[in-house]
From TrEMBL:
It is found in: Cell membrane; Membrane. Its EC number is 1.3.5.2. It is an enzyme of class 1 (oxidoreductase). Belongs to the dihydroorotate dehydrogenase family. Type 2 subfamily. Binds 1 FMN per subunit. The active site is at 186 (nucleophile). This is Dihydroorotate dehydrogenase (quinone). FMN binds at residues 66-70, 90, 150, 183, 224, 252, 276, 305, 326-327. Catalyzes the conversion of dihydroorotate to orotate with quinone as electron acceptor.
């Protein structure tokens, strides 16, 4: 079905299409029998798919990457499509509109996207309230869904004060999410990637770890890194994970590289983060390097350029414990989730 409607959707602005699709997906799931039909068509359920990673049990290893559900609006609908976990955000302490539109561009010749959204979101309070309501809803068949909270800083917050923004998001979401992701690797907030340097990053992670105990409960904290880091920077990342004791990494975010693209120059020259197939190889290389360098001492969630079941298997073989989709989900449709899970079942 998706291959039939995709050419129509791709005729329109990608951000507008995103809102059109998500609105109608919510409507479909509200109809009597809509949720059951969605699960029947897309969801692949089998105990063999379950994974226990950083102390959490995932019903399958295929998750929705941050950026798709920025405001915690689509958690149930995404679970009904077969995702084993959903990462909301990136959220910031205060609402912010993000960068000027247009800010998302398709590169069909490369099966890629360029986005410069700029952490557009309604703020952490709205996200926290929505997740809490999702957990409380007695009609919700997905209350046990693993939900991650991807947190960032507001654009107006200077880097020297960034830790306070991460604290605010961490404290507000602590009671409602299952794990946290510290996002310092988006290329679309000015100066944010400077926080990937060892000094400021250690300060943020150590501060959150010191707060990571509430009535005897702690949450796994992950760090999301860019694919553009050098080997020496990746070595620093391994040291940081081990020194701070955080739970693991997400590799990788979008890239600022534009190498070996087939798309027209106008699209290639759009500023922002590139995602999709051009990232497949590099993200897998980063996963493999980190896994080897750390001797597999911490889990890695693999994301970047997964457009097939084989792409997902490669990341798992390289050392990832779980995988996430975004651009591949846009290009290949919801059937990709089931194809990955079926391939994993056949492999097992």
């Amino acid at each position: 079905m998706y291959p039939l409607i995709k050419p129509i959707l791709f005729k329109f602005d990608p951000e507008n299409v995103h809102y059109f699709v998500t609105r109608n997906l919510k409507r479909f799931n509200r109809f009597p029998g809509g949720t059951a039909l969605s699960k029947a068509i897309w969801d692949v359920t089998d105990p063999k798919l379950e994974r226990e990673v950083f102390g959490l049990k995932f019903r399958n290893p295929v998750g929705l990457a941050a950026g798709f559900d920025k405001n915690a609006e689509m958690m149930g609908e995404m679970a009904n499509l077969g995702f084993g976990f959903v990462e909301i955000g990136t959220v910031t302490p205060l609402p912010q509109p993000g960068n000027d539109k247009p800010r998302m561009f398709r590169l069909p010749a490369d099966s890629a996207l360029v986005n410069r959204m700029g952490f557009n979101n309604f703020g952490v309070d709205i996200a926290a309230e929505r997740i809490a309501a999702f957990r409380r809803d007695p009609k919700n068949a997905n209350k046990g869904l693993i939900i991650g909270g991807n947190i960032g800083k507001n654009k107006v917050t200077p880097n020297e004060d960034a830790v306070s923004d991460y604290i605010k998001c961490f404290d507000r979401l602590f009671d409602v999410v299952d794990y946290f992701v510290v996002n310092v690797s988006s290329p679309n907030t000015p100066g944010l990637r400077a926080l990937q340097e060892k000094g400021p990053l250690m300060e943020i992670l150590n501060t959150l770890q010191q707060r990571n105990n509430k009535n005897g409960v702690s949450r796994p904290i992950l760090l999301k890194i860019a694919p553009d880091l050098t080997d020496s920077q990746l070595d620093d990342i391994v040291d940081i994970v081990q020194q701070t004791g955080i739970a693991g990494l997400i590799a990788t975010n979008t890239t600022i590289s534009r190498e070996n693209l087939s798309s027209p120059s106008k699209l290639k020259e759009e500023t922002g983060g590139l995602s999709g197939k051009p990232l497949t190889k590099r993200s897998t290389e980063v996963i493999a390097y980190l896994h080897k360098k750390s001797n597999g001492s911490f889990p890695i969630i693999g994301v970047g350029g997964i457009h097939s079941a084989e792409d997902a298997i490669e990341k798992l073989n390289a050392g990832a414990s779980l995988v996430q989709l975004y651009t591949g989900f846009i290009y290949e449709g919801p059937g990709l989730i089931g194809r990955i899970n079926k391939k994993l079942l056949n492999r097992d």
